[in-house]
Design a protein that fits this description.
The protein has 182 residues and is an alpha+beta fold. The chain is 32% helix and 17% strand. A four-stranded antiparallel sheet has the order 2-3-1-4. Strand 2 and strand 3 form a beta hairpin. The longest helix has 18 residues. It is globular, with a radius of gyration of 19 Å. The N terminus is likely disordered.
Length: 182
């Protein structure tokens, strides 16, 4: 999928995303979105095989009415990033319980067959969390481009030292006030 590869990101929607629940301020918490991220580094020579298996996997999820949606982003370095919106950290248990129920419906043989199809197509697979911070995001009043027609977005992360969250937020909000699109 090299031809259709897009750089992963949510513009500055996730510009300052934190993997801990305590960063969302009161009042902003209901607007922020916690996401479970699965990042898979696919071998370039296995992209077609990997994507075919993922497409079949998505079809099976749809057939069974899997209750959790996800989006997939692909970087130019063949990192496939699956973004699962979740309510809170405890919701991960519910997601995995739903997953296990689905595996039981499919049957372990069918599940193992799916696993076998992707076996050897990727180098790494890791999970982590991000939380969107709409209050720290920037969206200009007038876009210099039409976001619905864009294939590329910048996904930036800020790693803040524990105990420095309030100072970072204050400084970042001040920085937002200086951003001007010409």
């Amino acid at each position: 999928m090299r031809r259709g590869t897009w750089i992963v990101s949510f513009a500055v929607l996730l510009a300052c995303t934190f993997g801990v629940a305590g960063f969302a301020q009161a009042g902003e918490e209901e607007k922020s979105q916690l996401m479970l991220i699965e990042e898979v580094t696919v071998n370039p020579d296995s992209i077609e095989t990997y994507e075919a298996a993922v497409k079949d996997f998505v079809s099976m999820l749809a057939e069974q009415g899997f209750p959790y949606s996800f989006e997939v982003y692909v970087t130019d370095e063949y990192h496939y990033i699956f973004s699962w919106p979740i309510k809170n950290f405890a919701d991960v248990d519910t997601l995995f319980e739903s997953w296990m129920k689905l595996v039981e419906v499919w049957g372990w043989d069918k599940y193992k067959e799916m696993e076998k199809r992707v076996s050897g197509t990727y180098e790494t697979n890791r999970h982590w969390f991000v939380r969107s911070r709409p209050g720290l995001s920037y969206q200009p009043d007038e876009h210099p481009f039409d976001p619905s027609k864009s294939n590329y977005i910048l996904w930036g992360f800020c790693y803040v030292n524990p105990g420095k969250e309030k100072a970072f937020e204050k400084n970042y909000k001040e920085l937002q006030g200086t951003i001007r699109i010409k």
